[in-house]
């Protein structure tokens, strides 16, 4: 099997082996390419594996040998799955590989706003403690998570993992889910209740036409002014201008953001100067354990496809 791997540099910087995939055939590897070069890179390959590269109907037509499109990801909005199905091309994603990593990152952000440990460490490094008059100083207002309300928008695998951590901290957990879902210790509520009662609101829904800019100015206005929004889902679930306005006008205490509508972040993005906006560069998924798991499951997907029994198919 001839396999092309695209977006190699979005998966590893040399800290991860692709040997499980390379063992399956003749493999060509490319870093992220301009869209105009994607078809040429795929060439006569039977299979392509991508992260963010767009695989359109035009690319499929330019690569007539292509029979498998794999993703180094769970989301597949960059693949024209309808066109793939019409051409007999199987599309397979990787569900669940980063659940623990994302849940951990969510709480890293929540704990930032609860404890401000990194701000205190920076303050100490700047010499503030050396010049302090007392044994401790309270530059940042810390608070306990116990008895605070965590709201979860989307109660899939990651949402449920986040709920489990929240319960360990003694938090009250409420959630709004697209489908009826039962999760131990979680109260399902309407969206308005989720917005009005959450001290911390974390987003774990897919990006669809229904969820695009779901968290807009009207939704943010319903939240407590001392609440914190966490987004590790998709950037466009949040109206970025509305969030910046809420932060800068004191209508929201803070935001922990790992995903943007447009990535990489553009120069001058308003999040860079928004008040209490804590931004990480789309790395919630990217622990070494998660990326190792990701490569292994991609190899499993290719192996199953070659055996005639594909798994994790998103365009059946």
Outline of the structure:
By secondary structure, the protein is of the alpha/beta class.
How would you describe this protein?
The chain folds into 2 domains: 115 residues, Rossmann fold (3-Layer(aba) Sandwich), CATH 3.40.50; 181 residues, 3-Layer(aba) Sandwich (Rossmann fold). The protein is 31% helix and 15% strand. It contains 11 helices and 12 strands. Strands 8-7-6-9-10-11-12 form a 7-stranded parallel beta sheet, sandwiched between helices. Helix 3 links the parallel strand 3 and strand 4. The model has no long low-confidence stretch (mean pLDDT 97).
Question: What attributes characterize this protein structure?
Answer:
single chain; 316 residues; alpha/beta; Rossmann fold; 2 domains; seven-stranded parallel β-sheet; five-stranded parallel β-sheet; 11 helices; 31% helix
Q: Termini, distance in Å?
A: 22 Å
Number of strands: 12
Shape estimate: globular
Number of domains: 2
Q: What's the rounded overall pLDDT mean? A: 97
Note the quaternary state here. Answer: single chain
Helix content: 25-40%
Largest sheet: 7 strands, parallel
């Amino acid at each position: 099997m001839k396999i092309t791997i695209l977006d190699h540099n979005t998966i590893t910087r040399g800290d991860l082996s692709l040997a499980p995939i390379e063992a399956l055939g003749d493999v060509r590897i490319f870093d992220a390419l301009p869209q105009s070069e994607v078809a040429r890179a795929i060439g006569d390959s039977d299979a392509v594996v991508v992260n963010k590269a767009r695989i359109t109907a035009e690319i499929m037509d330019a690569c007539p040998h292509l029979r498998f499109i794999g993703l180094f990801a769970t989301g597949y909005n960059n693949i024209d799955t309808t066109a793939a199905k019409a051409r007999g091309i199987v599309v397979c994603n990787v569900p669940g590989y980063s659940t623990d990593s994302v849940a951990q990152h969510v709480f890293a952000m929540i704990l930032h706003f609860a404890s401000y440990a990194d701000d205190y460490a920076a303050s100490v490094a700047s010499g503030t403690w050396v010049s302090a008059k007392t044994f401790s100083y309270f530059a940042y207002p810390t608070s306990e998570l116990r008895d605070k309300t965590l709201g979860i928008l989307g109660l899939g695998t990651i949402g449920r993992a986040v709920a489990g951590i929240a319960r360990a901290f003694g938090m009250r957990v409420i959630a709004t889910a697209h489908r009826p879902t039962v999760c131990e210790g979680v109260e399902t509520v309407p969206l308005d209740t989720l917005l009005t009662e959450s001290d911390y609101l974390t987003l774990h829904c897919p990006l669809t036409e229904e969820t695009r800019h779901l968290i807009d100015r009207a939704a943010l206005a319903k939240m407590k002014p001392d609440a914190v929004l966490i987004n590790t889902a998709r950037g466009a679930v949040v109206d970025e201008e509305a969030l910046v306005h809420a932060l800068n006008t004191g209508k929201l205490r803070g935001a922990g953001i790992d995903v943007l509508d447009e990535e990489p972040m553009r120069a001058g993005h308003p999040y860079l100067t928004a008040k209490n906006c804590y931004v990480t560069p789309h790395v919630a998924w990217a622990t070494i354990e998660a990326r190792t798991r990701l490569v292994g499951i991609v190899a499993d997907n290719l192996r199953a496809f070659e055996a005639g029994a594909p798994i994790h198919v998103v365009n059946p």
